[in-house]
Amino acid sequence: MLQALGLGPAEESIYTALLARPTASAEELAGQSGLGRAETDCVLRELVTRGLVAVAADSGSGAPGPADHASGHRPARYRLTPPSVALAPFLVEQRNALHRAEAAFSMLTEQYRSTAAHPAGSVVEVVVGVEQVAHRFHQLQRGAQEELLVFLTGDPIAVPREDTGMSESSALDRGVDFRVVAARSYLDGPDMAKEVREGITAGLELRLVDSLPLKMVVSDRERAMVPLDMADCGGEPSAIVVHRSGLLTALVHLFEKEWAQARPLYTTATGVHAEPPAEQHPTGGELEVLALLLAGISDRRAASQLGVSIRTVERRTRRLMDLAGADSRLQLGWHAARAGWL
Questions:
Q1: Which terminal residue of the chain has fewer beta carbons within 10 Å of its beta carbon, N or C?
Q2: In this predicted structure, what is the pLDDT of residue 223?
Q3: CB atoms < 10 A from the CB of 42, how many?
Q4: Distance of CA 280 to CAs 115, 120, 183, 319, 341, Å?
């Protein structure tokens, strides 16, 4: 626990041994921690130097070290300095170190992005091999902070379905806005109905189309990954990673176009069903947003209460207004009441 604050295992062992008693001698601490006496004396000297431990006021010695029985001195006894005082500087230093690391990360990320001054070929990165493709796929999903856009079609090649599910769960737990358009054939696999039900219940937004032109994952609209034909790489799975560029913008536009035309999937007691194109109704998530908006709650508070991003709230509100044919939220409320949505 204390290693996160910069203490080593031996120091943490002595420190926690002192937590259970007002004072203790080096010999007592050595017995409780399982460390040798010499090592215990050394650790105590270090802890005293760092201000985490002090020599007890009634101790017979003013400095850490073995008892001098021959001289008649009592063994030195030690007590903890109040943790709220002693450990606070260590906590501040760790926070500062984290802030410095975040600043360095932001600087390096921005510097990498600015290498649009690089040759045009750096916009597209080719990844070859099962392990490399799977690694970059998980990087994109686990690195997403706001949004993931995914096309699912055909059988998985480099990334098994169970590994994909783990990345999806991680993203949903972080509150990432996760939208998926799946080709009908993708859902024909074994146990897919169960996986789809679990995903939708966890917050995944899934829509269905008859077919898709490609597989794809887009992370925060900054990077996308698209598989290549294995014939182009000697039969090995391969993919391209597309960085911010006109090509990436086109891929996002393609996703939004397919999303708008796809049929939402919803769960019932009997399974997972696609909403008929002619019967456009609000989803459960959209009705949750509608209820909060009609109660006068702001988009930000609604996002916080529902555990989703503001972008998700805004997108659901836009779709509600499209379904209602409304130009304002006031008109949306009137239509919702008239249509019996709530």
A1: N
A2: 92
A3: 14
A4: 45, 43, 20, 10, 12
